[in-house]
Design goal:
The chain is α/β, with parallel strands linked by helices. The protein has eleven helices and 15 strands. Strand 14, helix 11 and strand 15 form a beta-alpha-beta unit. It is globular, with a radius of gyration of 20 Å.
Length: about 325
Amino acid sequence: MHAWLCENPTGVDALTWKELPTPTPGPGQVLIEIKAASLNFPDLLIVQNKYQMKPPLPFVPGSEYAGVVQAVGDGVTNLKPGQNVACLSGTGGFATHVIAPAAQCMPLPAGFDLVDAAAFIMTYGTSWHALMDRAQLKAGETVLVLGAAGGVGTAAIQIAKAAGATVIAAASTDEKCALCESLGADRSINYSTHALPTGFRDAIKEATGGRGPDVIYDPVGGDFAEPAFRSIAWRGRYLVVGFAGGGIPALPLNLTLLKGASIVGVFWGDFARREPKANAHMMSELATWYEQGKIKPVIDSTMPMGELKAAYAHMGSRGVKGKLVMVN
């Protein structure tokens, strides 16, 4: 097998493509031949030693992937060789083969495209857990999605629309806004044309008829957080999903009092670990929605696995719409 190996987490340039022995699965494990692996923001942080999970060195980055089971270890009864699966194991995906815990593998129904599957679990798991579980989104409510043209953002648009919500998408270019509207967003805000903080607040106010959004889905953080939160509706829920904007904001807590609003943390990875039955039910529901055509990952582009460093550069340029997927 071959894999991108991180022996020194100083950044993407330190990754090397190496030949390694193909491993044998142990108890509770499966060997997967990887067909596709998606690139997520944590995959950039982890090779810079900036992610909350710090795997022992050396490691193979690539948190999310899909492929074909080649062999199963002792005790594995729910998977068999030849079966298509998707997996989110945190590491191992940027390779030709990987050993994965069978419990973390999602069996794929017939017709589930492997490129879509490699871009499915993290974004849709995060967005469903955020909107449907943590925010308890109801039909008829209004959702503001920040960073709406990215992986989790496009998933959030689709899930919110399928749940019967009105969606306002905020993104950084007219092209990205057009993509969001093509996915079902009712309105869009190009926040590069609205000066922070007052211009952005005014745009949110105008888009919601002065009422403000019931739910704010924020994977961006930084300078957008406070003006967005100041715009929230009474009893609104502000979802803290991530900090792709770079800075971790500090919000004045008096705003929660004045708005009767909640700041709600979203850590889907720990939800999946702590509440596996609830997570499995959620993923089953999402797979059904995929089969019904209600949701479908937005694929920016596919690139050969050997071009991983170029893919990282593309992601870093903030030009990605949806998900980048590496293929073998």
